[in-house]
Amino acid sequence: MSPDDTPFIRNFFRAVTDRPLGSKQGDDSLYVPFYETPPFSEHDPVKLLSRSIEFSMGQSVQLFSGYRGSGKSTELRRLQKQLTQKEYKVVLCDIEDYLNPAQPVDISDFLIALAGAFGEKLIEENYLSRDPAQEGYWTRVKNFLIRTDVTVTEVGAAIPTPAAAVNVKTSLKSDPSFRQRLQHRMSGHLGELVHEVRSYVEECVKLVKAKFGQETEVVLLLDSIEHIVGTSINATQVHNSVLNLFAAHAEKLHFDFLHVVYTMPPYLKVLQANLGTLYAPGGVQVLPTLKVRDIDGRPYSLGIELMEQVISKRGDWKRLLGHDRTILDQISELSGGHLRDFLRLFSEILRRADTLPVPASTVEAAIAQVRSEFLPIADADSEWLNVIAQTHETALKDHSKLPDLARFLDTHLALYYRNGAEWYDVHPLVRDIVARQAEGIRARSDLRK
Fold first, then answer.
1. With 8 labelled, which of 218, 265, 306, 314 sits at a CA distance of 20 to 30 A?
2. CB 169: neighbour CB atoms within 10 A?
3. What is the DSSP code string of 393-434?
């Protein structure tokens, strides 16, 4: 390897490290504008989200969904930038900073976290110079809990007495027992809590308007809610809690004088039909995986070209792979159009590179490594996944199997696409393995008959 090769490989490796674009200075240069290209432009999520905000009278609420690694957080940052350029005051908050995604979520702790995130980000973005709650938002929450008779003995030591200074924010995220007791006690004071949170949000918005002008409109983008998926032990309970949050409590997630975009888990669209009607006028926008092959299995040239643009923004792929475009196209197709997996394949190639361009054996070893991270697949999963591959539908027999479907989508074993109608497929890295495994199960079953 020449002295110039090591810096090239190192810089290329750093450039393919997965992160939401727009989170660091200079990231904009890496962004590929998929949605400026027909036929993708008609489904541009930022255009649709933005228009619902701009066309509404001072307030709106929408749901935005995307599978992990699909670029959802990047698109939220693009929305934030576009609206900010139009003089909206926009804050982007990450719910994972306030709630543990492995625990069931309740409307009470969700509203408390939402208001806390909103106030803190307004100050962080210099839209406000102070918290409208003179004593600070989390102290205001503490005092509200005390006023509503949520005492130390009822909820636990995490709730402070008036003289104590315990961090309610920290307890919300790090103490599951505190959240459980809080949820139980707040069930009898939910109306008061909703009023308290809405009053606080309204005070924040009024202060922003007083500072920047009464025509100023404020937008809250709340990210990472789709990460609330639970564990293998409590997945069903967590999924039901998220459904209850967005369906049963939809009205409580609307705020006067505020535009809100909530991210949501994609499985809610499967579980709750016509969810978008509860969040008019914007409804639900779902970000699909970039299509690199048609539903009939033929390569989709436009998607493959866009994948080439993604990697060209990050490094000279010809120096890495050689000038044979066939190798790059193979990597694009094997990624299934999933951006995170596409970059992961390149990071593995770069990690193994000893000469440039790398030999075919290095590419094959990298593909085998990334493929192995999907394995092993349980027999029952392989049978279901094989049906998805054949029918291009979720093949969800009943809602009790929803946690398994959510797991397929979260781990990219199954991918979601849209070209007119929506459809699903098994990740190309394991599609053949799934088919062989399912066939083996059928063969063994036939032998036993």
1. 306
2. 17
3. S----SGGGHHHHHHHHHTTSEEEEEESEEEEEE-HHHHHHH
